[in-house]
Amino acid sequence: MICLAASATLIALTGPEFTLAWSHSVTRTRWEETWQAGPEGLRPVTAFIQGPGAGMELPEGAERVDGGWIYRPTLPPQPEIFLAASGATDGGWIICADDICHEMGAEPGAPLHLWWAARCEG
Predict the structure, then answer these.
(1) How many CB atoms lie within 10 A of CB 17?
(2) Which residues have C-beta within 8 Å of that of residue 1, sequence separation ≥ 6?
(3) pTM of the entire structure?
(4) Dist CA 70 CA 67 (whole Å)
(5) Is there a contact between 26 and 51 (Cβ–Cβ < 8 Å)?
(6) Does residue 81 sit in helix, strand or coil?
(7) Beta bridge partners of 74
(8) What is the DSSP secondary structure assignment for residue 88, as one 8-state letter?
(9) What SS3 state is found at 69?
(10) Distance from the first to the final alpha carbon of the chain
(11) Is 97 exposed, middle or buried (0-12, 13-18, 19+ CB in 10 A)?
């Protein structure tokens, strides 16, 4: 299962896939990645962006689609992911799985931790 931890909150997502979305702090454009999880770790499989932003350019191979760009990230499976909000956006990270979404890590500097495990324990 996919485990999410932020501050004192621990959430377990039972599906093998989740979507991670956020707003770019300068351009306010939406960035969204679809990830798959398993024993090898967490791996991004597709990504959608409304447009490039300061410090985040379009990756090579990005294709124009209605409303933005889509591409396939080349990052290998990660055993865990740590994200932190800058405080410069209107919210935190939005994680969705099985049609249920959670907004987490909105507090500046508060890390969001994601990992795959047989059981989620803090």
Answers:
(1) 15
(2) 12, 13, 14, 37, 116, 117, 118, 119, 120
(3) 0.84
(4) 10
(5) no
(6) strand
(7) none
(8) -
(9) strand
(10) 14
(11) buried
